[in-house]
Amino acid sequence: LTQLFRPLDLLGMVYRTVRQGLIDMAEMFALVDTPVEVSDPPGAPALIMRQPTVRFDNVRFGYEPDREILKSLSFRVEAGERVAIVGPSGAGKSTIARLLFRFYDPTSGRILVSGKDLTSVTQESLRSQIGVVPQDSVLFNDTIGYNIAYGREGATRSEIEAAARGAAIADFIERLPDGYETEVGERGLKLSGGEKQRVAIARTLLKNPPIILFDEATSALDTRTEQEIMQTIRAVARDRTTLTIAHRLSTVVDADRILVLDEGRLVESGSHGELLAHAGLYAEMWQRQAADTANEPEPV
Length: 300
Ligand code: ATP
Known about the structure:
Keywords: ATP-binding, Membrane, Nucleotide-binding, Transmembrane, Transmembrane helix, Transport
Organism: Croceicoccus marinus
Number of strands: 10
Helix content: 25-40%
Order of helices and strands: HEEEHEEHEHHHHEHEEEHH
Distance between the termini: 66 Å
Structural class: alpha/beta
Protein name: Metal ABC transporter permease
Bound molecules: adenosine-5'-triphosphate
Radius of gyration: 20 Å
Subcellular location: Cell membrane
Domain ABC transporter: 54-288
């Protein structure tokens, strides 16, 4: 009888692997428009994360040969640091995230994680140690528990609940009539943008990566939800290295360091206070945003 079941086990495993691959692809699309094949060098070792640091070293990159997007970009993110990347639309913020995930390789220069050049280690090992909370998370038509558990194959119920607590969505789930068994997605309960992002945070917590990349939602969340999510992210970021691609300045004020990108160049770097005192591009963006917020109509 066990002989009979083995192929089924295998099928189950293949199915789960393919399914996991599909959602990875889907999440990837939030970061990448056209994924380009990069390959592992033969016999490449897995990345061993000794220190969760990130370093861009004179990185040049363009999607097309005649249009350079990142122009000799250099910066470091130290272990445990919370760094935000800001800059005008099209400056290259998401491109940095795509390169860090090695969806593309730089034209020249190097990207190092834990001191290792990304082109010298396997992509799988790299991606398993960097968690992404994308702008728009993909949910399966399955239970909310399953959707969190997807963060790590074989997670136990108590681990799933701990991740949900960490992402501040446990109370919400426990109030649902079917709790963690509640079906979500197309045919089930529709989750709001904020709730979906919390599921993504819970998934990432379960995966427990030493480096987390937050791609902040551009517009989906109202101010209060955004503040609550930011609070959750701050708690999650404790003891981890985090890189936040920020589309609104209100969310970066307490980052350890803010990198200001303009047309693919790092033009300023410092804390919120330092950058305001510097009276450069960041200060200008901050004033403009404050003026825009003041002019916004009051919610009715
Ligand atoms: P935003 O704040 O608007 O999201 P961003 O700073 O994240 O902007 P990127 O998405 O990194 O900007 O894009 C930088 C530039 O690269 C843009 O000019 C964009 O048109 C270009 N670009 C992005 N993806 C591709 C692609 N797949 N192929 C060609 N060009 C691309």
